[in-house]
Backbone:
């Protein structure tokens, strides 16, 4: 596959898309781990969600 | 499971956990097929190999507008039906839409330099897409600036619906004004004007990028639901500490 005289423009386009898509995936994955960690920290400190408090009969 | 069941964030999280692995796999396969077909596509008789930029530029350009359309529906969900997941959907979509718009602008610019002789021209299509990108950034800033999610949701929903006026302007800018940008060659009256050798890889890439959006959007919505749970629990923690002190 020859990309001709404009190979730099074509390669830069594809690499930019790849970089931005990878950044989005990484950002979402890191954010998910961060939120899960915060939730488990709060639960380990004994903080319950409203639905769990009502299940446990607490006010 | 009916649509109304999805109004419950817990049920939505359960559905997301089941669906996401399948979506990730399907998106990866379709992207691989699309990239393979794009690599094998012949050179255009006028543009040469730069036509390969079309296979990534066009899906990103379509999605830049489609995501705003999704956010506009979600804005209606927030303002009219007060659906609990509507603002979550809109807020989660905005950064993804901004990224697709950024990619449409960058790849378009990189395609324009060899074909038009310039990276940028202040014509109607390019300028209206730049405005769309700035509107995405404005919305993201608004959600970050207002601490109370319900207040931010209403303001963002109104801004989103006002911004939707830009979508037909972007779509028809190439017909209404003289622009460097070519007119529509796929979604047009009379069917696509593209040769099959270019149309098939383009449609596969468009489907792959659309699935990529759905996958990222569901994952980002899941994160936003968890973030709101964390916020609610932190507020509960502060309230509990206050009661203990009293």
Residues:
């Amino acid at each position: 596959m020859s990309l001709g005289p404009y190979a730099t423009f074509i390669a830069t386009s594809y690499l930019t898309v790849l970089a931005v898509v990878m950044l989005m995936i990484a950002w979402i994955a890191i954010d998910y781990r961060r939120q899960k960690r915060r939730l488990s920290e709060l639960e380990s400190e004994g903080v319950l969600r409203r639905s769990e408090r009502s299940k446990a009969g607490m006010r | 499971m009916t649509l109304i069941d999805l109004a419950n964030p817990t049920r939505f999280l359960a559905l997301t956990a089941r669906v996401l692995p399948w979506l990730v796999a399907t998106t990866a396969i379709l992207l691989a097929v699309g990239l393979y077909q794009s690599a094998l596509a012949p050179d255009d008789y006028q543009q040469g190999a730069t036509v390969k930029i079309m296979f990534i530029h066009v899906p990103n350009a379509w999605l830049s507008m489609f995501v705003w359309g999704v956010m506009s529906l979600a804005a209606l969900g927030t303002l009219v039906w007060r659906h609990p997941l509507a603002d979550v959907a809109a807020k989660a979509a905005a950064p993804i839409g901004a990224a697709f718009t950024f990619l449409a602008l960058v790849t378009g610019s990189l395609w324009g330099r060899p074909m038009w002789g310039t990276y940028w021209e202040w014509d109607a299509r390019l300028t209206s897409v730049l405005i769309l990108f700035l509107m995405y950034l404005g919305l993201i800033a608004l959600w970050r600036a207002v601490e109370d999610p319900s207040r931010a949701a209403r303001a963002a929903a109104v801004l989103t619906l006002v911004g939707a006026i830009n979508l037909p302007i972007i779509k028809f800018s190439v017909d209404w004004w003289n622009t460097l940008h070519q007119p529509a060659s796929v979604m047009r009256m009379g069917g696509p004007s593209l040769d099959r050798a270019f149309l098939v890889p383009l449609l596969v890439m468009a489907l792959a990028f659309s699935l990529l959006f759905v996958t990222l959007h569901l994952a980002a919505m899941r994160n936003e639901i968890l973030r709101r749970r964390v916020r609610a629990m932190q507020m509960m923690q502060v309230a509990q500490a206050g009661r203990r002190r009293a």
